[in-house]
Amino acid sequence: MTLNFRFAIVSDLHLALPHTIWNHPSRFHLVEVSIPAFESVLEHLTQLNLDFLLLPGDLTQHGEPENHIWLQKRLAELPFPVYVVPGNHDVPVLTADEQSIGFADFPLYYRKFGYDDPDQLYYTCQLLPGVRLIGLNSNSFNDQGQQVGRLDIQQLNWLEEVLAAANDELVLVMVHHNVVEHLPNQSRHPMANRYMLENAPQLLQILKRYKVSLVFTGHLHVQDVAYSEGVYDITTGSLVSYPHPYRVLEFHRDNHGRDWLQIASHRVESVPDFPKLQQTSRKWMGDRSLPFLLKLLTLPPLNLPSAQAEELAPNLRDFWANIADGDALFNYNNFPPEVSRYFQKYGAIATSGTPALIDNNSTLLL
Questions:
Q1: Cα 190 to Cα 83: distance, rounded to the nearest angstrom
Q2: Which terminus of the chain has a lower count of CB atoms within 10 Å, N or C?
Q3: Per residue of the chain (366 residues), what is the pLDDT tens digit?
C-alpha cells in the first residue's frame, strides 16, 4: 500500500516577547528575531498543504508563562495540526518560580498539540491512517535538583507498550535531546555530552527492536542527519541561531513497500530589523566564539596548552557556524597533524572516507 504525506520541522524557537528578552552579552543566538522569524516560517508553511508540523522542544526562551501562552495561541490559528515536546528551556525548574513554569505544567499549555493527558509529559497519537507519532520528554531532574537529559524508567516501559501495540504502523519519534551522536564522541565529550540523552543506548535498543527508523530531535542547534544501525536521528538547527533553518519533509512508500524520506531545508533570510540576517547572524556567532573555542581546544581529547589554543583559535572563528550550517568539510592543514585530523572528524564524511552531504537536502531510503 502506498503512503504519502508532507510535514515540516521547526526546532528550538526560543520564542521571547520583546519585554522578556535577556540581553546576555555572550549568547550565540539572536532571540530578538524569534517571533518575526517564526512568523516568516509560518507564512511559507501555510502555503504548502502540510499534513502536520513538529516542534521538537525549546519552544520558549526560558519557560516564561507569557511566551508559552503566546505560542499556544499562535499555534491554534494554524491550518494544520502541530505537535510539540518540551526542551530543557521550556521546563527549566521543577517547581514554578517568578520566571518559569514548573516541570509538570507543560502539558497544560499544549493540550491541543499532543498532550491529551495533562498529567503526563509524553504522549502518542495517530497522525494519519497508518502513521503514529510518539512525543517523548527527555527532561529529568536528578537528586540534586539539576536538570539532565534522560528518559525515566516509567517512560521507557510505556514506550515499549506503545511500540508493541503499534502493529504495522509507521512510527515517528520526536524528542528534544539527541539519540544518535552528531559530533565525534558526542556522548563522552565534556562540552557536547549534555546534548545527548544520558541513556540514549537504552532508547536506541528499543527503537531498533521495534524497527523504528525515524527520530526527530533538536537541542544541538545544528543541521545534521546521523545514522546508527537502522535509526536516523534528524536534528534541526535553531530558528534563532545561524543559519536560522527549518525543514520540509515528504514521506513516500512506493508500490514495492520501500519507504523514502525526502528532506528539503530552508532558511529565514531576513526579518524587519535584520534585513541581512544570514550575514549578521554568522558574524554575531563568530564574534562570540572565542571562549567556546578555547574550551574546545584545551579540554579533552585535545588538551592543548592555553598558549597554543590562543594561537589556533582565531583560525576557527567560523568553525561552529560551519557545523551549524550542516554538510561542512574542514581542512586545517596549517594546524599540527593531530589537531588537523581531529577537526576533520567534524566534517560530513561517511565511514568510507568520502563526503556525505545529507544534512540539508537529501533523500533517504529507510
A1: 32
A2: N
A3: 679 999 999 999 999 999 999 887 778 889 999 999 999 999 999 999 999 999 999 999 999 999 999 999 999 999 999 999 999 999 999 999 999 999 999 999 999 999 999 999 999 999 999 999 999 999 999 988 899 999 999 999 999 999 999 988 999 999 999 999 999 999 999 999 999 999 999 999 999 999 999 999 999 999 999 999 999 999 999 999 999 999 999 999 998 889 999 999 999 999 999 999 999 999 999 999 999 999 999 999 999 999 999 999 999 999 999 999 999 999 999 999 999 999 999 999 777 778 889 999 999 999
* Total domains, the chain: 2
d(CA 168, CA 1): 12
- Shared domain for 259 and 307, answered yes or no, is no
Tell me whether residue 208 is in a domain. yes
Q: How far apart are CA 356 and CA 56, in angstroms?
A: 25
344 within 8 A of 338, measured Cβ to Cβ: no
- Distances from the Cα of 3 to the Cα of 109, 124, 163, angstroms: 32, 20, 20
Q: Do 309 and 195 belong together in one domain?
A: no
Please indicate, yes or no, whether the overall pTM of this predicted structure exceeds 0.85.
yes
